[in-house]
Target: Azoreductase
Amino acid sequence: MHPKKILILDGHPGETSLSRTFAETYADAAKQQGHDVRMVHLSDLQFDHDFGQGNYEDFKPLEPALEQVLQDFEWSEHLVLTAPMWWGGLPAKLKGFIDRAFIPGRTFDTRNTTRIGFPAPMLTGRTARVILTSDTPGWFMRFIYRQALIRQIRDQILGFVGFKPTRFTYFSGASYPKPGSVDRWISKVARIGAAAA
Model:
């Protein structure tokens, strides 16, 4: 098996979390199989997560932390993002990271467009795995919310800049897990990490 360059982004803003546990579990399993792994914890990053005026020509200069992670994105062949779903979306700091780091000229090209008129993605040739935790039951996420957050991450964020395919692992009941659930979840993440999937 060809060793992959894997970037793991622990997208939980706290220093301890299930997201961090899953990120580290995946990393350990992937490293044991000979993959090249870089790990980033969102809680360690210092940056202004307000995009400000929000236009393509005049955005804030990237702080060193954001520049380094953006270089890690460019280096990677496979992205692993672990994060909780809060209020139907991503944590504010993680969303701010995306707002600030996914900028034109680095992750998408406004000078060139796709067949349907979107800016051309610049991070093509890469795949992704997203591991989400939530208290929303899986059936409710699927049939009532229609997997809105999953579609946003897959199509409007990662797909927009070139990550395809993006696969998802969804764990519900995360705040008060049933006995044995966390151990089963960790085992599943370890299997995924060993396969670099």
Summary: The helical segments are 18-32, 64-75, 92-101, 138-143, 148-161, 181-194. The mean pLDDT is 96.
